[in-house]
Amino acid sequence: MTEQSTVPTTATASKKNTVPYSKALGLSIALHALLVIGLLAGDFSSPPKPKPTPAKQPGEPIKAVVIDKATLDRAVNKIKQQKTDQLDAENKRIKAAENRAAEAKRRRANEEARIKKLEKQRKIKEQEKVKADAEAKSAKIKAEKAEAIRKKKEQEKQEAEEAAANARSKRLQEEAAAKEAEALRLKKIEERKRAEIAAKEKAAQDAMLAQQMADEMARRNQARTQQVMTEIERYSALITQSINQRMIKDRSTMAGKSCRLTITLAPSGFVINVKIAQGDKVVCDAATIAIGKAGNLPVSKDPEVFKAMRKLAVTVIPEF
Questions:
Q1: pLDDT at residue 24 in the model
Q2: Neighbour-count burial for 33-69, b at 16+ CB within 10 Å, e otherwise
């Protein structure tokens, strides 16, 4: 009787101990989960304060699930490193954007300085042309004055010679008939020589004047040609700048690359045709699209300059 009553008593005690143990285990897991969530979401500048553990109840064994401190530290350090990496990446992106803005500003300043230099050179050429025209006009006036003086002297010389000839003729008329004939022969010889000398002098004067006129025409043509070339260079720069401003650029695919285009223009600046001569396809496609966006490109109102730039070759280099 005694042994039979002991068995159910032991089973009942075991069942009573299992229930509190399950409750304690669940409570421990919940507390540790809350602790981990708090550490992941909070500031890790100071070590976490220890959480109070529930007091054990007499007669109820509790088994808690313990999180390894090294594992927790690694998780915390990983989160800190991720935040640091994100901050570094953002700082680098901001720095890169600032560098690109500074580089674009410097390129714009260089381009404006270059355009100003070209404009200054054009004005200097115009001043040189005005000066050359004034010098040519002055030289022409001097040549006309010199020619007038020469003609006057020639006329005075002729008059003097004619007076001498008349006097000599009178003397010869008083001499014998033979001397008169000889005098007439000598006079014709002398007049022929004078005519030859005068013709040579006139030919020399004409040749000198023709040479002066040819030199002046060559100087004017050279000055005009230089002016036209300067204008073409200036408008080429303006057109290249206009294309660059409208291009969609990507440094990774366009850096250090270029495209050579031949553009046919109307007098209004309207683009009639664009032909790709050579260059990188990505840059050429972007430049062609930019020309389409521009509609009209800057052209010269000077007919001679426009005639020279109607079919214009430009090289587009992306500016970042």
A1: 52
A2: eeeeeebeeeeeeeeeeeeeeeeeeeeeebeeeeeee
